[in-house]
Specification:
16% strand; 8 strands; 45% helix; single chain; alpha/beta
Length: 252
């Protein structure tokens, strides 16, 4: 399991904190077998992926991978991204992807590579009943444009790349709070905290009232550290450095 409730290295504090989370955690990756395993973990409420993760995982056939993933998690929301760069191509791909399952959300980037807004594409797809995951957003102006287009849409996710906002030396916390205010009154719209850089981002997302956070497999594995005694963690770190130096045979 992702969070082994009986494991000795999971503290009572970790269990309590994890159990108290209101933000829903979506696993972010491109391994159908891993998805199948994670789907058994109650903490995981959905899945996301993207072409970059798929390429890194060695995915060669987009549709074959997607159908395997949907089969692995038929009862949880899962997002797949279009890869066309023109509106007509995105529309065509999105309609095909959406037809693969009722639990499928289609990721549409906020712009194409030319910087042209893809909000009209989202509006049209919403009119066709497609569940949208508006992705790669990094400004509240972008969130506002998408929210205005999807006010009457089916359920939709608005992915704000909070981690990348932080990478640019800006405050993602403020952007998330403002974005939540923008979509207030539209219950079918949910804000997704994307590109987290640390496990603590889950706590921050929860505190803001963000609806969803998407978390990579490597960060998910660190959830067992929630509430860990820092003196013990410090000693483990010192021991790791010592053992690695010893095994390397360093001598001065």
């Amino acid at each position: 399991m992702l969070v082994p409730r009986k494991a000795k290295d999971v503290t009572d504090g970790a269990k309590s904190l994890i159990d108290s989370l209101k933000v829903r955690i979506f696993a972010d990756g491109a391994d159908p077998a891993e998805m199948r395993t994670l789907a058994q973990e109650p903490l995981i409420k959905g899945f996301t992926t993207n072409p970059t993760l798929m390429r890194k995982a060695g995915v060669n056939n987009y549709e074959t991978f997607a159908r395997q993933a949907i089969k692995a998690v038929p009862d949880l929301p899962i997002s797949f991204e279009v890869f066309a760069d023109d509106p007509d191509g995105m529309l065509s791909q999105a309609l095909k992807i959406a037809a693969w399952g009722d639990n499928v959300y289609v990721k549409i980037p906020i712009t194409n590579t030319k910087g042209e807004s893809m909000v009209p594409v989202m509006r049209r797809l919403a009119g066709e009943g497609v569940k949208i995951n508006a992705t790669a957003m990094m400004t509240t102006a972008q969130v506002e444009a998408v929210a205005d287009a999807l006010r009457q849409s089916p359920p939709a996710l608005l992915s704000l790349f909070a981690g990348r906002i932080a990478d640019s030396e800006r405050d993602p916390y403020a952007a998330v709070n403002e974005s939540l205010a923008i979509i207030e009154g539209a219950p079918q719209l949910e804000l997704l905290w994307a590109s987290p850089r640390q496990v603590y981002d889950i706590v921050l997302a929860d505190r803001t009232g963000c609806h969803v956070i998407t978390v990579t497999y490597d960060l998910l594995s660190k959830l067992r550290l929630f509430g860990k005694d820092l003196d013990a963690y410090s000693l483990e770190t010192v021991s790791m450095f010592y053992e690695d130096a010893r095994r390397a045979g360093y001598d001065l």
